[in-house]
Design goal:
26% helix; Rossmann fold; 6 helices; alpha/beta; 23% strand; 7-stranded mixed beta sheet
Length: 218
């Protein structure tokens, strides 16, 4: 089995949401940006999707060549990558690794059909647990506390909506988090504290992973 380089369970949770997207079928052309091992593409193939492509800077650990086309390339230099148009582009746990994450939206604008859809997932800085840790320590979870060495940019939702998406003709259909009802961490005390804080503070985006469902304007 290919390694899923995302939060545990994210692929399984996301699949039925993709299958339920309006206008998306097994014949839709799907591209996964930063496809890594190809685990997400393999899962899509197992669910019946057939027109699958992955792109990544590295090719040495891609293991889904039997079910998907692989292109080695850097989306930050998308003008050097010639692609067809796609109905759906996914970018799972890539945004936070990029020095210029705006390139994801520029790439989607260039390579989505009109009305095509983009899914972006990234660590969620808006949960009450993350906000409380930042208040107490001044450190941002996943970027300064328990950070992966390659994590560079958190997704600031209002700034993306206001400054970036209009430039690339993209709009947000909905915003979800995974897990939907908050962190699924194994330590019981943080979970209890999070639930208690949620009684007093807004916690509309409670999960560890922020999931944006976007659409390219017609």
């Amino acid at each position: 089995m290919l390694r899923e380089m995302t939060a545990t369970g994210l692929h399984a949770w996301l699949l039925p949401l993709v299958q339920a997207l309006p206008g998306i079928s097994n014949d839709s052309r799907v591209l996964d940006l930063g496809c890594g091992t190809g685990a997400w593409l393999a899962r899509l193939h197992g669910a019946g999707f057939r027109c699958l492509t992955g792109i990544d800077r590295r090719s040495d650990y891609f293991g889904a060549s039997e079910v998907a086309t692989f292109i080695q390339g850097d989306i930050a230099q998308s003008d050097r990558v010639e692609l067809e148009s796609f109905d759906l582009i996914t970018s799972l746990e890539v945004f936070e690794h990029m020095a210029n994450p705006e390139a994801i939206f520029a790439f989607a604008h260039q390579n989505l059909v009109a009305g095509g859809q983009l899914i972006v997932t990234t660590p969620n800085i808006y949960s009450v647990r993350v906000r409380m840790r930042f208040l107490l320590s001044g450190k941002l979870t996943w970027f300064e506390h328990n950070a992966e060495p390659e994590h560079v940019h958190p997704l600031v939702l209002d700034a993306v909506k206001r400054q970036i998406l209009p430039e690339y003709g993209l709009g947000i259909d909905r915003v979800l988090t995974y897990p939907e009802h908050g962190s699924d961490g194994t330590r019981w005390f943080p979970r209890i504290v999070e639930r208690a804080l949620s009684l007093a503070l807004p916690n509309d985006l409670p999960g560890d992973t922020l999931c944006l469902f976007l659409r390219k304007h017609q």
